[in-house]
Design goal:
34% of the residues lie in helices and 19% in strands. The protein has 11 helices and 12 strands.
Length: 339
Amino acid sequence: MNETAIKRVVVKLGTRVLTLDDGRLAQERLDALIEDVADLMRLGKEVLLVSSGSVGLGRDAIGLPPGPSDLATRQACAAIGQGRLMGIYEQKFATHNLCCAQVLLTQSDFDDRQRYENLSRTLKTLLRHRVIPIINENDVVATDELAYVNPRLAGASSRNTAKPPRVSFGDNDQLAAILAANLDADLLVLLTDVDAVYDKNPVKNADAQRIQTWTVSTEVNADQDPGAGRGGMRSKIRSASHAARAGCTAVIASGREEHTLQRVFSDDKPGTWFPPMGRLSPEHQWMVHTAKLSGIMYVKPGRADMLSRPQTSLLAGDVERVEGAFIAGQVVEIRTEGD
């Protein structure tokens, strides 16, 4: 990786990076991370932060212990903690003469193509003015937890007209990957509480081996404890792979070690690296990785394969049945019976 060619960086800070084991904010760790971001800005980089932490800060403010809770309590804690989180970021970045901006997102911001493009323009304008976007899921209203659509996993098998189910997005790892792809970022850094991806859980297996470079043939036992966050290693691997398929280099590394962001741009590179594997157009990125699946069309055998060819149309007579309700401009999946 040519460090001088890296212009735009998306950094995801997980709950376990931002908090101590007792749930309190890790002040010194956050100070060091913000110092690293400020150094990148001085080098001319554009940095976006995808930050967890609002729910944890809300819990701490009203005396609730860390751990699972019902949805309403989580949303209430997010409402309390989000302002506190932004206040902390504003104060700490101000010491480096930097400005930051709050951006709260829900699934609906990605489902509609126009809103998706508006979001992209807003974020790029902030970066052009040297402002650091602080991005998070809007937990106060987002009960779907940013449902992430994977068409191959989200299909309905029953013959009914209900909308097909969706796979839950569930954490900020996928949000960071989607933004990195959408904004043509050069680098995605997923900071967590482990120093890399291992072939098996390093907490449970003393002989676990660190994977330095991820390839399409890499296989791991990703049975990791997600702990205070909603992600876990499976989510981070999926997210890093998503970014790599969009042409963005990705790395999974420890945010609990000192100055990890500095080391990313040094010869002593931390973590596990995911090299880029091609680049999708913005329209295809939205369709494949972001937009909500609105329905499924089952076509006659052979027609699905033909649609992969250039300038090929689907005729009404090719469709055997439809699941879901959709209109022009919405995303549907094409299947044959038995898929």
